[in-house]
Amino acid sequence: MKTQILTLKSYDDHKLWSKLKAGDERSFSLLFEKYYGDLIHYGNSFSPFAEKVQDCVQDVFADIWLYRESLQEPDLIKAYLLSSVRKRIARLYERDHIFKKISTTDSIEFLFDFSVEHELIDDEATAESVLYLNKLLNELPSRQKEALFLRYNQGLSVEQISEMLNVNYQSANNLLHRGLLKLRKEWKGSFPVLVLLSSGIL
Amino acid sequence: MQKRNYYIEIEDFLADSSFQLWILFKIDEQGWEEWTLENQQRAKLVEDARLLLLAMKVPANKISSSELTAAMQATWIKIEEKENGNKTIKHNPVRYLKQYWPGVAATLFFAFLSLWSYHNQLDRDNSIITYKELIEDNKEGLVEQTNNSDKPQIITLSDGSSVLLQPDSKLSYPKIFTGNERKVYLCGEAFFEISKNTQKPFFVYANEIITKVVGTSFRVKAYSDQPNVEVLVRTGKVKVSSNELTGTSKNEIVLLPNEALRFLRKDLSFNKITNITEDKALVSSVGNIEQLSFEFTDIPVEQIFKTIEQAYLVEIDFPKDKLKDCHLTTSLSDQPLSEKLKIICKSIGNDTNFEMNGNQIVITSQGCN
Fold first, then answer.
1. For the stretch A54-66, what's the b/e string if a residue is b when 16 or more beta carbons lie within 10 angstroms of its beta carbon?
2. Signal peptide span per the entry (chain B) (predicted)?
């Protein structure tokens, strides 16, 4: 879905980016319109303070415009934007009076919950499995959830995720892998095929 | 193209955008259906990946075009401000006023805080946090009011809350509350009446402790002649915690009606007092405002104004002749001063208004209904 849109439009993103760097306001607006919603949504997964998140996202764009001339061209514009928003929120947690003194978390926590695609489920057995899987997913540690979200919903590569979460490639891979591994373990009866499968069969 | 023939894990499918497109949007450009049916084990794997995708929905994030336009405008304003290096006016005041006025509904709590430091005893201790320190990291847009007079002064905050600042005390507060919390910093003694807004909790930072309003109405009270901070609750619920700057572990205490708390600054400990009537120190220092009743049954308006004058130490100027036969029945407990005045004016009649200027309140009226 989003990944698809992303691959289809990634060329456009780079075009927009280079025009933006040259001072084209329209390209800046287009990029803003394209990603503002996603970024707000991502930001809201860290903070219950919607207004602060809006501020952060707007600051990210404001800085892009102000420092456009010195900006590098990122591999994936969206990954760059997501990462910038994340950093800004993390900084807010570090600096803000209330956050600093009220919250005890060292790093920011991804508080997002996955939901279920009800519209695409037509039988009860599927509904039951999906609901159960959804519950398991949402019980995963927040970093694993965030990695899964970035990988499969936002279409980021493992490298990009590792950069964003400030861990090495292997750790990012582990975050993704461990999350799904746990699901499989919990969901024993339903995933036996994975044990049987070897690459040779296919 | 046929890299999918080598897919052996669910992850491989999940990351395949054309697979996602097929499952979630039923757009099968690459013949996934047919491919799946070729092999039974493959079908099982595909089914598992499908279930997982269905369980990983990210709710569509719809932002209306008007919201988007507003956000874009806000961003351009930010850009302009940053270009001008003008970082003090960070927010568009009009935007925030609009958001806050509807929230000024009812008073949620009465708070009375007095915090005096025993400098001689406490100065050498690192854990002691001063008012200066508190406002230092938060200077942006704070207004400071100091009461050097010998009478309490009334301050009305941008959310409609009122603060009765005692002599030799000061309060720092933002001219307009922005963001999703309301924070003020106190040095000395003050009586707070905070307007209700569950979305935007109200925090009073005072020396080493933070008082947070959780629910309905409450009153907090502390003493000036002891090296400690005291909080007393009448109704509702209040949370008190130590400021993490003290280096102590996070300590949060919930206070319910008729419970109090004494914070010993010297050893940073909390003492909860569950029976306030047995604590002489607490009982003896009840201010005007706490003794007066704001429950009025068929009472002349003049007398109601007198009560308010006594409680808040303000002067109310009103047309005596026009209001001499007016009686009101109303309950004004737990309302900030501005709310009380608003309710009274509304009850008297539509042509009645008030204006507040420091300690001076002027009522204009054409008489009651």
1. bbbbbbbbbbbbe
2. none
Domain range spanning residue A147?
118-191
Q: Give yes or no: residues A94 and A125 share one domain.
A: no
Place of tokens 């003493």: B223
Report residue A133 CA to chain centroid gap: 20
Burial of B131 (0-12, 13-18, 19+ CB in 10 A): buried
* Long-range contacts (CB closer than 8 Å, 24 or more residues apart) made by B250-253: B250/A104
Distance from CA of A49 to the nearest CA of B (A): 6
Residue ranges of the alpha helices (H) in chain B?
10-14, 17-25, 32-37, 40-55, 65-83, 93-100, 119-122, 131-136, 280-284, 288-291, 301-312, 320-323, 337-348
Model confidence over B107-137: pLDDT tens digits?
333 333 333 333 333 333 444 555 666 666 5
Are A114 and B245 in contact (CB < 8 Å)?
no
CATH number for position A157:
1.10.10.10
When CB atoms are compared, the residue of A48, A102, A193 closest to B48 is A193
A111 in any annotated domain: no
Same domain, A65 and A122: no
B3 touching chain A per CB within 8 A: no
- Across chain A, mean pLDDT equals 78
- Indicate the burial class of A125 (C-beta count within 10 angstroms; 0-12, 13-18, 19 or more): exposed
pTM, entire model: 0.47
